[in-house]
UniProtKB/TrEMBL annotation:
Entry keywords, A to Z: FAD, Flavoprotein, Oxidoreductase
Record flagged with keyword Oxidoreductase: yes
Record has Cytoplasm as a keyword: no
A single BP term in Gene Ontology: lactate catabolic process
Cited PANTHER family: ARYL-ALCOHOL OXIDASE VANILLYL-ALCOHOL OXIDASE (AFU_ORTHOLOGUE AFUA_3G09500)-RELATED (PTHR11748:SF114), D-LACTATE DEHYDROGENASE (PTHR11748)
EC number: 1.17.9.1
A molecular function (GO) term: FAD binding
Source organism per UniProt: Pigmentiphaga litoralis
Protein name: 4-cresol dehydrogenase (Hydroxylating)
Amino acid sequence: MSAPLNAFVKQVQLALGDKWVDQRPETLARYGEHTLPATPRLPSAVVFPGSTADVQAIVAAANDHAVPLYPISTGNNIGLGSRAPTAAGQVVVDLGYRMNRILEINDEYCYAEVEPGVSFQMLHDELSRRGDKLMISATSGPPHGGILGNALDRGAGYGPYFDHFGMLCGMEVVLGSGQVLRTGDGSLDTDNLLNWHVSKYSFGPALDGLFTQSNFGIVTRSGVWLMPRPPAARSFHFIFENDDDLAEIIDLCRPLKLSNFVPTLFRVTNDLYALGTEARNPEYLAGSRSAISDTARRDLQKAHGLGAWQVSGMFYGASDAAIEPQIQRVRAHFERSGNARFVDHDQAMDMPPLRVGIDAMTGRPGILELGMLQWRPGSGNSWFLPGTPMSGRHAIELDHLGRQIFARHGMDYIVMHVASARFARGLHVLVWNKDDADENARADACYRELTVEFAKRGVGVGRAPVDYQAMHMEQMMPALQDVCRGIKRALDPNNIIAPGKYGIL
């Protein structure tokens, strides 16, 4: 160890206890792994705080000895970096290992107060134990992903509470200076914080957004709003047979969301995204530089009862009978096109590619969608996350562009559009054989070309894998980059919290 790192370790051991600092080679290897094209990035140590005071002690030691930290929640950010630090040698601060308490569940105001280690599965299970009166907004990703980590990276779900950052209310943050900040009405200088987790905004600037997709501080707890579980929930699904039906799909979804008649987002999955829950690329051969053929895609669609696109949404109500007229109205709206095949809730429950959306929209974490990580062997996985206005002409132009770039690099085109009223986020999934050096290189080149070409058309991303965050920040206007650097210097003057994360130094 270097002298500064050695001094840091000793100071943290004194504050937390020896067993909460781990430098064993097997631990460092585990925390350095990820699914991205680059080689592993091993930390120099992993520390396990048990409280906000412990986090302050770690930050103080890092400032004293100029040791960079890399905080994580549960480390399940698969396809975006997992738990690996921005750069080798940083100290991983694993908040989730010990700081995994549900501090409060308030049934009257429908919120929970949680620490970073509380996963979607943990909160769901506790709510179920308490009578299933409230429901979380689940992702379709890892059930053991952290609720706070996902929200702070601006991840999302699909139901009415889909905006996970928007559903946070009242954070506690340890700044790079070591100060503790509370946001919202928690910022009152009193211990009687009546409105902390029910009122998002207090006097003065609203600072919560500073701590999403940034390295300005370490969030140690937050309130998260929960949805009362309705008596009944029924999904609806439509299957479209042709790739270019996407334009029509987007134009059909838009009015139903502009009026908020459909309370959920629309999940618009292409064939390979849907099939990834249970199928593998039947044409894959090691060393091949070709994407799956259209013939093989059609065969898979037929075998699994799917099409080129699957559209899913959900209604909630007092009973199945009360919901049925709404489903029939949506069915009539989609079937006017002549291209939509309706699949009802009961049928979809027996179809794993559609069951994924049902689980997520009813607040039930699941693992089915993780099956796509094995679409090809080798478990390489990254996510390119651009968006499009809710316009069919724009959506199809970007779809053609994405297909061409994926094909050029021999990648299978896997995408889901999560559609709201005015905007749809496109989840473009790169899956490749990480054990193959050529596939690694092609996956990296594909991501970079997607980034450049979409930006030329005025399209940025909502989230980014750690390896590409600096590239995306370089695409931002100089004023934004300057402001981010200025805030970093103000809140973390010694640059010890995740230097380089999100391209901010």
